[in-house]
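re: that chain from earlier
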Amino acid sequence: MPLDKHHPHVMTCLPTKTISEAVIVPPFDVIRSKDSSSIASEEEAIELQEWLSLIALESPRIFDGDAIDPYLYRHNAIEEGRASTKALALVSWSGLFSGDWARNFFLECCRATTDEDQAWFAMIGYAFKVESVEGNEGFTILRLPSKGANSSQSRALGDDVTGPTVGDYLLWETKNGYP
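^ sequence. v structure.
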């Protein structure tokens, strides 16, 4: 290998999988505009991105039954009475990966997410923290659950039934630690 002369320390980075029961999940329909052609508002999109970040951090604020004092934690991205409680799987790891690997992983997630069960997924990636950057730079991609008619339409658009389906996706780019 060309790097052997530099005596690299090779490490294997294995993913960790966490299944969380009773996670409060916001209604995804509030993020779509009435005609489904765009997002409803920037504020709702940012609140959804904050909720995804809480999941990535494995914060106790996402669990049903969390009774934190409202004085200590005032943020509530989920409207009362509109949320549902579901089990979520979080797969995470730290290490290097290429852009090709990230694209292929994203496409595999698209193929594995079926329209029939209102499934969704989010992919969050961050660059290494560098002093000159003053924060993490990264991205969040969210595939929203499809809406009734969107499911059959997405399957009818192409011959590749096992490929990614047409649907609604949101992308946030994070610079200097802010979306």
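Residues 149-164 have pLDDT under 50 and may be disordered.
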